[in-house]
Write a structure and sequence with these properties.
two-stranded antiparallel sheet, 5 helices, about 35% helix, about 15% strand
Amino acid sequence: GINRLNVNGREVLQIFPGADGNASGVAVLIEIAKQIQQQKFLFRRSIIFAFFGAGEESCAGSWYFLNRSFKETDKIVMMLNLNNVGKSGGENGFQVFTGIYNIVLNAIVKDLADRPATIIPRLSSIDFEASDHRMFYQKEIPIALFTTGHNPDIHTVKDTPDKLDYNQMVGIAEFAMAFVQNIAN
């Protein structure tokens, strides 16, 4: 996003790159979509890739999808939200939130985490932010939020690509791919 400021009588353009919030999630989702397209014969269920706008404004995009544009919401098995997945270290490890403890989804996460050479997420009981998964959760559709949590750069001019952990994003993409395949089958 951008913001125009008046500094000492001059207009200054502030640019908010949004590298983690939320270009990181978009990049991981595009990678997963590419892999699924190449391996679509491995999936029994259809998968919808949706990129919602206005997430910070009452989740207007996901609300519209569920309430106006997609007519078969009763057929949605679950929603995976990839939000802020680009940071690492300290409090920014890979975390999965499934709403009020979802036994089935948490078991899938734990089973996948037991595989060798995979990133291991921490199941979280904390919903980090108002994001698109909440609209699905309100409609009683199971959700999983994949995130590395909040960091002070989110929604600021400091949220730049040089601060992302691309190796961790690759690990999250691999984990998400296995998760989606498990759910779809």
